[in-house]
Amino acid sequence: MTEPGSIPTLYQWLGGSEALLRLTTRFYENVKADPLLASVFAHMDADHPAHVAAFLAEVLGGPPDYSQHHGGHPHMIRQHLNRHLQQEQRRRWVGLLLDTADELAMPDDPEFRSALVGYLEWGSRLAVINSQAGAAVDADAPMPKWGWGEVKGPYSG
Ligand code: HEM
Questions:
Q1: Considering its fold, how many domains does the chain have in total?
Q2: How remote is the CA of residue 93 from the centroid of ligand 1, in Å?
Q3: Ligand 1 atom closest to residue 124's alpha carbon, by position in its atom list
Q4: How far apart are the C-alpha atoms of 148 and 73, rounded to whole Å?
């Protein structure tokens, strides 16, 4: 956990890798039952929830497993190429992830949720942009890193 007086990462605040894997596992079950998203994810493999959990962990301040073992940010971008994702699907994806966080009673303090929504809006819009015709992968794209933003988190008491 965090040292007294130090600022926890978003990753620590939400409960670490186990909590993220619980979130993505349940999320993709919900996705498979969703009329707008089921067909988009019809061919995802069984490891997809674990890969997305590892990616989110790294972005939110956790261990760099996705960079070290799964190809990093360029690999993630490649997975979205030419999928022609639509805004309606993106909005549903974000909404369903947040609904799943509620379903699993993840932290719902205003500071954490606004930081999470900020990242999901940013990341999902990039996924849509990178899924359109003509999008290219920057092989050196660094992993995004997300923190608390402008607010003083609940960690500050
Ligand atoms: C913050 C937003 C997002 C993140 C962090 C994210 C993350 C990822 C990652 C890490 C992968 C690759 C998994 C692997 O390495 O095997 C992936 C694949 C994929 N993503 Fe996303 N994604 C985001 C948004 C979206 C959205 C909004 C959609 C569609 C509405 C989407 C659709 C897909 C699909 C279809 C795949 C390929 C699944 C397959 O293997 O068939 N993503 N995403």
A1: 1
A2: 10
A3: 2
A4: 21
Distance in Å, CA 102 to ligand 1 centroid: 21
- The Å distance, Cα 76 to ligand 1 centre, comes to 7
Residue among 32, 39, 48 to mutate when testing ligand 1 (max atoms within 8 A of CB): 48
ipTM exceeding 0.90? yes
Domain that holds residue 89: 10-149
pLDDT in tens, 62-75: 999 999 999 999 99
Give the CATH number, domain containing residue 97. 1.10.490.10
Answer whether residue 1 is part of any domain.
no
In a domain, 143, yes or no: yes
What are the binding residues for heme? 51, 75
Q: Tell me: the pLDDT tens digits for 26-83?
A: 999 999 999 999 999 999 999 999 999 999 999 999 999 999 999 999 999 999 999 9
